[in-house]
């Protein structure tokens, strides 16, 4: 029985015998891992690895996302008892999922950081596992997409954000969370015709040709039509999802570096992500969770839910045998 297990099990992050299955452990105790998955650097037989990139040195305003992965893991302990709601299957039981821990890097050597991220992700992909990354500021998506493109070719991109992140910057040595998409496009990791940005509500006339479904569009057209438009853009292509938590309204996710009003409600994000079932997802991230700006913890809870939906979406892709 789950209750008995919860009374008698602790630290399942490293004591659980089986990578599959739900986890029963007191939510308030034990070593937190993402959804109480086992911490492991062994990727043999692993379907999906969760990893953290605790980096916040590319922000334009408030730092703090270096604490994001740890906070998301802690928030996720509340969800480890049950299958994700509304999916009709349990990705935690169908897939071997491990928490691969965080990327190690020299915080004082930012020039070497992008390659370290790319190599970290490439190691996971090279072992045959999928990967979902907990950020970290949005710069990290640029070197992640490099690893994705190296493996899959240019990937379709679904980009949830308040900001376009296409600010022009042709100095490739600069590390900036506001230019990850500009540079990913210029470097050929993604293509504008197969990239869609959702939830935008800051002005940037230079879209780089990316499809934009801005926040007013989502509010006025509704979730179902937004899902249709996203699916039209990405089609059956190998697809990466990057979810900047500031896509959500500050009412739902105040703990982020550059909050903007008029954003998505958490129910809209949940319905959008669930609605995307059927895409050919090869990976994803949730970035920009900055716990120091949110004493309630709501932002990390939202980040944990987004990450869990990404797990469910990835599992759905594998179920239909379409993983690229
Ligand atoms: Mn962003």
Give a verbal description of the structure.
By secondary structure, this protein is α/β, with parallel strands linked by helices. The chain has one domain (3-153, 239-316): 3-Layer(aba) Sandwich (Arginase, Chain A). It is 33% helix and 15% strand. It is built from 11 helices and 9 strands. The chain has helices spanning 2-8, 12-15, 68-76, 91-94, 113-126, 141-152, 180-186, 215-221, 223-234, 266-275, 298-319; strands spanning 38-39, 48-53, 97-102, 130-135, 156-160, 195-198, 211-213, 238-244, 280-287. It has a 9-stranded parallel sheet with strand order 1-3-2-4-9-8-5-6-7, sandwiched between helices. α10 links the parallel β8 and β9 (280-287). The radius of gyration is 18 Å and the shape is globular. Bound molecules: manganese (II) ion.
Shape: globular
CATH superfamily: Ureohydrolase domain
CATH architectural arrangement: 3-Layer(aba) Sandwich
Q: Note poorly predicted spans.
A: none
Count of distinct structural domains: 1
Bound molecules: manganese (II) ion
What name does the CATH topology carry? Arginase, Chain A
Mean pLDDT: 96
Helix content: 25-40%
Number of helices: 11
Compute the CA-based radius of gyration. Answer: 18 Å
As a percent range, the share of strand residues is: 5-15%
Strand neighbour order, sheet with most strands? 1-3-2-4-9-8-5-6-7
């Amino acid at each position: 029985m789950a209750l008995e297990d919860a009374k008698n099990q602790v630290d399942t992050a490293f004591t659980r015998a089986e990578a599959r299955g739900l986890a029963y452990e007191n939510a308030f105790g034990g070593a937190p891992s993402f959804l109480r998955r086992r911490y492991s650097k062994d990727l043999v037989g692993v379907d999906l690895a969760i990893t953290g990139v605790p980096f916040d040195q590319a922000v334009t305003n408030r730092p703090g996302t270096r604490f994001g992965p740890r906070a998301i893991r802690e928030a996720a302990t509340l969800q480890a008892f049950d299958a994700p709601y509304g999916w009709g299957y349990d990705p935690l039981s169908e897939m071997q999922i491990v928490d691969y821990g965080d990327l190690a890097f020299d915080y004082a050597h930012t020039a070497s950081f992008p390659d370290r991220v790319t190599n970290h992700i490439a190691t996971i992909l090279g072992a045959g596992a999928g990967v979902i990354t907990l950020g970290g500021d949005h710069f990290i998506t640029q070197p992640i997409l490099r690893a994705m493109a190296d493996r899959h070719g240019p990937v379709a991109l679904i980009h949830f954000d308040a900001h376009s992140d296409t600010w022009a910057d042709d100095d490739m040595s600069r590390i900036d969370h506001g230019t990850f998409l500009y540079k990913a496009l210029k470097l050929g990791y993604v293509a504008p015709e197969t990239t869609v940005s959702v939830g935008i509500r800051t002005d940037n006339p230079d879209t780089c040709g990316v499809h934009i479904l801005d926040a007013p569009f989502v509010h006025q057209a509704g979730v179902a039509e937004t899902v249709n438009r996203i699916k039209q853009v990405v089609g059956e292509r190998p697809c990466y999802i990057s979810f900047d938590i500031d896509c959500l309204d500050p009412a739902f996710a105040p703990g982020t570096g550059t909050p903007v009003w008029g954003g998505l409600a958490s129910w809209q994000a949940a319905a959008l992500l669930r609605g995307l079932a059927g895409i050919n997802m090869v990976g994803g991230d949730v970035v920009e969770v900055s716990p120091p700006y949110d004493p309630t913890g709501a932002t990390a809870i939202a980040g944990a839910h987004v990450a869990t939906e990404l797990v469910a979406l990835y599992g759905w892709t594998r179920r239909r045998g379409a993983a690229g």
